[in-house]
Amino acid sequence: FKLPSDSFKYLGWCDIEEHGVRGNQLHCPRVREGPSEEELFFRKEEHVLKKRKQVTDTEKWEKRLQENWENCAELNLSFQDLGDLYQVENFKRILRRLIRVEKLWLVDNSLTDLSAIRLPRCRELNANQNHFTSFKQLPKIPQIQHLSLAENNITTLSGISDLRHTPLESLILKRNPCEFQERYRQLVFSNLPNLKILDGIPKLPEDCSPPDVRFFYRICTIL
């Protein structure tokens, strides 16, 4: 059976009349846009069209200006179900406006490349369960302190040195292919000298052992 809210599933919260919800009460807003009229007709859901408020391009632009993403300091945009290209582009449009965000969650959004995005004040970013394959695909995060990239598809540590000049203290790369690279922890810490915690484990003495010393120990013969 359809849920009572089924006829409103493609509406933004501010388009629904007679409610007392305010924007600052939405801790995990759904920013994925609803499908086009053509797509609704294809899905045989044209009955919801009469529930959607028809707006002109000018009204749509004015509404976007009122979204006020620029003043967000903490935001959860996880689980947005970005299946179509226009959904991804709308999502990136919002990310470009997050010039003051300090804590951001982007979990499970099938993201592949945010290299064109800059988050100048972001100190904490959780991008777990996406489709990143390289550190080069991450957004520009010059002030990052805590970065979580668990369950992506990052195969090598190439590009990790781009984070070298950031105040990064903790990094999570669990369940990425690069985790199985030989001398994984030593390589990460050698590229990120300011890093204190990797995958939840604090930096250990053996994590900063020079590779030539470790090699000497392996070939040493006791007489």
Automatic annotation (TrEMBL):
Highest taxon in the source lineage: Eukaryota
Keyword Repeat: yes
Keyword annotations of the record: Leucine-rich repeat, Repeat
Signal peptide region: none
Name the record gives this protein: TILB protein
Organism, as annotated: Tychaedon coryphoeus
Gene symbol of the encoding locus: Lrcc6
